């Protein structure tokens, strides 16, 4: 899929401001549109991240204060980029800042602006895991593959630093041995029970590997999907059996790739999401579902 043909992942209203910031031939108008886009994202998406204490006085805060309120959600480098976008937008909002606008800086800011919603999803996964809620992988999979790839690559890079090869392989072998005994009738299946936090963490890491390899394949990058699994094996994050199972899965899925329903744009994401959300019980909804719905919405 051609990444250049995809619009930035953001609500339609914010996207309108983003497109304005690309099309105008006056730098100060482009900078003003950048600020409007950032403000819209803060008001329609970031607002959902707030806890009850942070909500106090929110409506009276300026953009700088609002971003500072959310500083604990994002890593420091992303917070710096968000404030960088804000500062450039300020130059467009005030006449005395117009002279300081430079096209190269504006273009770089647009790149950052286009990634804000992806940063939000990434930050959520890093903080809460990929399996915090059973519906999360399904909801996330409604995105076109390229968005999933960029997000999952960032999350995996972060999680890889926290997971030791010995502990992940021990967990994997324990799970595999148990399933083998169940299949061969050596033991009866255990009653369903809530996994421990450590089991969730390690299981979530393996699911990330699975989902990222599938996203590569669905993005018509079959070779890359195979290379990725081999890379995870070479780094010691998966064992022979997991590698073999994943390569078989990729092969089978690759044979039917043209039959799969894969979103090619955000409009299709919205349609697929509309089909899924009614099945998510209200008591099963999570912050992720709220954020994701806001990010892919038609309007605020």
TrEMBL record:
Name of the protein in its database record: DUF4145 domain-containing protein
Domain of life from the UniProt record: Bacteria
Residues in DUF4145 domain copies: 55-109
Pfam families referenced in this protein's UniProt entry, alphabetically: DUF4145
InterPro entries, per the entry: DUF4145
Organism: Vibrio lentus
């Amino acid at each position: 899929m051609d990444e250049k043909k995809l619009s930035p992942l953001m609500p339609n209203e914010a996207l309108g401001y983003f497109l304005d910031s690309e099309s105008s031939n006056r730098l100060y108008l482009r900078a003003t549109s950048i600020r409007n886009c950032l403000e819209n994202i803060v008001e329609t998406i970031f607002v959902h991240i707030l806890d009850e204490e942070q909500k106090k006085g929110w409506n009276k805060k300026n953009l700088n204060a609002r971003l500072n309120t959310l500083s604990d959600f994002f890593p420091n480098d992303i917070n710096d980029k968000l404030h960088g976008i804000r500062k450039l937008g300020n130059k467009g909002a005030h006449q005395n800042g117009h002279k300081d606008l430079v096209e190269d800086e504006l273009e770089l800011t647009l790149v950052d602006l286009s990634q804000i919603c992806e940063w939000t999803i990434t930050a959520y996964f890093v903080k809460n895991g990929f399996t915090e809620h059973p519906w999360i992988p399904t909801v996330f999979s409604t995105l076109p593959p390229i968005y999933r790839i960029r997000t999952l690559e960032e999350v995996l890079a972060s999680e890889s630093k926290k997971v030791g090869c010995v502990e992940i392989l021990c967990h994997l072998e324990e799970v595999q041995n148990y399933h083998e005994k169940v299949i061969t009738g050596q033991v009866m299946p255990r009653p369903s029970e809530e996994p421990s936090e450590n089991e969730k963490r390690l299981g979530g890491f393996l699911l990330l590997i699975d989902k990222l390899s599938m996203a590569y394949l669905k993005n018509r990058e079959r070779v890359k999907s195979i290379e990725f699994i081999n890379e995870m094996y070479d780094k010691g994050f998966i064992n022979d059996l997991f590698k073999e199972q994943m390569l078989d899965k990729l092969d089978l899925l690759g044979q039917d790739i043209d039959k799969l329903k894969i979103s090619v744009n955000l409009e299709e994401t919205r349609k697929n999401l509309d089909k899924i959300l009614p099945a998510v019980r209200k008591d099963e909804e999570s912050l992720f579902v709220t954020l994701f719905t806001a990010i892919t919405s038609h309007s605020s």
